[in-house]
Amino acid sequence: NYVLTQPHSVSGSPGETATISCTRNSGSIASNYVQWYQQRPGSSPTTVIYEDNQRPSGVPNRFSGSIDRSSNSASLTISGLRTEDEADYYCQSYESGNQDVIFGGGTKLTVL
Amino acid sequence: QVQLVQSGPEVKKPGASVKVPCKASGHTVSSYGISWVRQAPGQGLEWMGWISAYNGATNCAPRFQGRVTLTTDTSTSTVSMELRSLTSDDTAVYYCAFFFYYSSGSYYNFQSWGQGTLVSVSS
Which of A31, A36, A100, A101 should be substituted to probe chain B, the one whose Cβ sees the most B Cβ atoms within 10 Å? Predict the structure, then answer.
């Protein structure tokens, strides 16, 4: 299976924009949808982006997702950072062939 | 909105087995799946496997094959995960997560998660 690589940590100040990358090491990032989950300490993960760039109802439009074929990566962008955005974020995708699910290692977002 | 309710914390000795149920409610479709994801203390999310509540199809991550059994009881909308031959490395919070299942290939968007079950393995 391929691997999804995320930076260990990202930080930003309130009001700024933070971007978290998720790079696929083999095969095209566009081959399989990418989801993004937010996990606050002591809580279960929740979806903030699904199917590359779709936002579930209730998720602020400050959250957006995209894929970049040239870098073979997906990105989660959070604009207008708020202190409540401080959390761990995980990208996730899957293998078309064996239907295995793949998680990135997670990124800790700190809002300073 | 789909809700997943899991059982309470478990304490097990090395070599024992644990079975964690996950009851789904609020879903209006029968074609869904439940995936199991665990998180060791201070670590990231690790996918373990999934089961289709629609047709009972299962898929487990290679490192858990032979040690994990996933079952479904459609009459109670409950899916269970049994993990055998526990070691201290299995100490983790175990989550179940809901996704829409398509026999032609699912997208694995885990739109709802259970509250997690802490399994502690210690002698």
Answer: A101
Residue ranges with strand state E in A1-112:
4-5, 9-12, 18-24, 35-39, 46-49, 63-68, 73-78, 87-94, 101-103, 107-111
Residues of A in contact with B45 (CB under 8 A): 37, 39, 45, 90, 92, 103, 106
Question: Which letter does DSSP use for residue A16 in this model?
Answer: S
Q: Which residue of A has its CA nearest to B42?
A: A41
What mean pLDDT do residues B57-73 have? 95
* CB-CB neighbors (< 8 A) of B109 in chain A: 33, 35, 47, 50-51
The backbone region for B7, taken as left when phi is positive above 0, alpha when psi lies in -120 to 50, beta otherwise, is: beta
User: CB under 8 Å to B14, separation ≥6 — which residues?
Assistant: B86, B87, B88, B121, B122, B123
> Over the stretch A39-89, which tens digit does the pLDDT of each residue have?
999 999 999 999 999 999 999 999 999 999 999 999 999 999 999 999 999
Q: Which of B100, B86, B99, B65 is nearest to B20 (CA)?
A: B86
pLDDT tens, position by position, B27-38: 877 789 999 999
| Element of type H or E holding A101 | strand A101-103
Token pair of B26, please? Answer: 């609020």
